[in-house]
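To: structure desk
From: M.T.
Subject: fold request, one chain
Message: Could you run this one when you get a chance? Sequence is below, nothing fancy, just the single chain.
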Amino acid sequence: MDKINYIKNSQDIKKIKIPSERTIYSATHEEIKVGLTADVYFLRTHEMLTSLGLDRTKVTAEIFATRGGTLAGTKEALNLLRNLEVSVWSLREGDEFTKKEVVMRIEGPYGEFGLYETALLGMLASSSGWATAARECKETAQGCQVICFGARHLHPAVAPVMERAAIIGGADGCSCILGAKLLGKEPIGTVPHAAFLIVGDTVKVARTFDEIMPEEVPRIILVDTFKDEAEETLRVASALTEKLEGVRLDTPGERGGVTPGLVKEVRARLDLEGFKHVKILASGGITPQRMPELIEAGVDAFGVGSYISRAPAIDMTMDLKEIESKALAKRGRIPGKTDNPRLKKVI
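Reply: Done. Structure tokens follow.
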């Protein structure tokens, strides 16, 4: 990252004009880097400190969370801070942290990074919330595969961030192409109901999928579009035989959803017909609370969407704890650096 040309004062804000033809409202990378996503009072602080000749005041800032969870978003945060005149200590992505534990410490001239407080806290808060929900799912899944299907529940600008955070938290994969690629992985997914409705037959879709998809793509077929799930499962299994890796149950709530009873029947009928190798993937409103009964019934994998994507952010706070190496903090906070031997210097 090159040296950033921040917005510097109130006049810079007035000069900003948004073209009427702008089609996507999310911030671009450049807009984040120059400070356009900052709360305006940070810009005003920068402007006042500059006028007083205090923008180069050396400070120590600490970021802590209001509740425990799984840390994610640190790589984005560090990318924002890299090449600034700062030193940074942090926990690692994927680390568990406790309530009020310092997860990141920044030292340097306040004018170097103060404008980024909004962005830094948002990156850590949102990603940590998603990672924490994903870890809860994975820990509850008792070894079953957990795939994040949550991209459709978020603005597309942040969906890859969410799915990446889910994998950091413990999910085995995600369906969003960019989310997976950000971690050097391949996206995971089956086929939507739209394909079956257009083609008109589940077995024809299954055979076409098998014929044209690369060998490394798992043959997992959705079986709840037209007929009884158990019936469709056996039709698909008979058509693909040993090639069929699994079936996906995504029965809508209008039909009772994916229940333990349904899973038991599908599992039993597969076993009776000699298809014990075929796994069952359940999706549609999956939560950690629903997982134990479904696992007992025979589910091997879960597609989890809204439980991860709608997870609340873990509020993060940044406090100044030293000014020019002197311990100083606002009332209610303990002045001076907070001892945390788990922090490692990363910049």
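Reply (cont.): The chain has a mean pLDDT of 95. Let me know if you need anything else for the meeting.
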